[in-house]
Design goal:
The chain has 220 residues and is of the alpha/beta class. The protein is 23% helix and 26% strand.
């Protein structure tokens, strides 16, 4: 089992993701600098980690979406490789056109960092199959621009097609319809604002994030 974590200037959760994947699923993880023009062969998972890529200048994730490696990430996603964007990584996926919608400033214009309880809205995905009968999960958010927005037509479509994967039980940032995580129509690209990489061990307050990583490799 093999994964790659993309490192952008300003990423600060890249090593968190590496450790979380290694300890949760026993996979081998390679770190890939954003200026690379090729990804490692035979990947089961690509992760775009949290942080402040390019200092969040312009728009969060907008500059990172133009990095050379993203051409290869998009190609891998088109080929069916699992891609997960966490927090800033979710923003990058939206800016790159791999996911619909956008992430705006939090409703109360404050940075939020705390554990949140999520509903596992769709348990029949390659990212959530390992949750089994568990219908809620605890993960940690840490963002200033985690307010998911899309027009009503887009929201109706992703709801109707089962693309909403996680939803906040107590919405911390004003996200439309309490959405915390969505996937693409093909079902292999997931973006979520809460951090599974900060919630994979009981010592961190929750091990629910480990279920996400295990689900991906179990389906690989």
């Amino acid at each position: 089992m093999k994964a790659a974590v993309v490192v952008f200037p300003g990423s600060n959760c890249d090593r968190d993701c590496k450790v979380a994947i290694e300890r949760s699923a026993g996979a081998r993880v390679e770190m890939v600098w954003h200026q690379e023009t090729a990804l490692p062969d035979d990947l089961d998972l690509i992760v775009l980690p949290g942080g402040f890529s390019y200092g969040d200048y312009l728009r969060c994730g907008a500059m990172a979406a133009q990095s050379p490696v993203m051409r290869e990430v998009i190609k891998a996603a088109d080929d069916g490789v699992a891609v997960v964007g966490i927090c800033n990584g979710f923003q990058v996926l939206c800016e790159a056109g791999l996911l619909p919608g956008a992430l705006l400033r939090n409703e109360k214009l404050k940075y939020i960092c705390k554990p949140v309880v999520l509903d596992v809205v769709n348990s029949q995905t390659r990212f959530t199959a390992g949750f089994g009968e568990q219908r809620s999960a605890v993960m940690t958010v840490g963002n200033g621009e985690g307010n998911f927005f899309a027009d009503e037509q887009t929201l109706d479509r992703i709801e109707g097609e089962g693309q909403v994967v996680f939803r906040y039980q107590d919405n911390p940032n004003g996200s439309a319809r309490d959405i915390a995580g969505i996937m693409n129509a093909k079902g292999n690209v997931l973006g979520l604002m809460p951090h599974p990489d900060r919630s994979f061990d009981p010592d961190l307050g929750s091990e629910d994030g480990a279920l996400l990583f295990r689900s991906i490799f179990a389906s690989a």
